[in-house]
Amino acid sequence: MIAESPTAEVTNNAGQNRFELRLNGDLVGILGYYDLDTRGARRPSSATPVVSFMHTVIVEDFGHRGLAAVMVRRALDAARGYGWKIRPVCTYLQRFVADNPEYRDLIVPV
Where is the N-acetyltransferase domain (predicted)? Predict the structure, then answer.
């Protein structure tokens, strides 16, 4: 029997204010964010949304496999699609963007 290749899926769970990384369907990582609009604040319709990416967490058993980078990359790609600007509170995200300049256009200072 040939084992299937693992599939990594990253989705935005807006109800929980986090991106979720699932490996073969199992939740193995989260990237929590804080969007001021979800807390009842109002911004002008012409304003670009600024979302704080707060923390990146990978389940310990799945650490050191590059999964955090997969999740962060896909979350940043989704943020670009949503028209968000990102405030990188998470130190892992700060290092990722420093190493991946193609995402620097999304970043606003903390």
Answer: 11-108
